[in-house]
Amino acid sequence: MADIRASMVQSNVQSCMQVTPATEPSVPKDQQHLQAFCKCTSEGYVNGISDAELGAMIAGAGSAKGAKTPTQRLHESIAQCKKKFGY
Question: Could you tell me which of 9, 25, 36, 65 has the fewest CB atoms within 10 Å of its CB?
Answer without folding.
Answer: 65
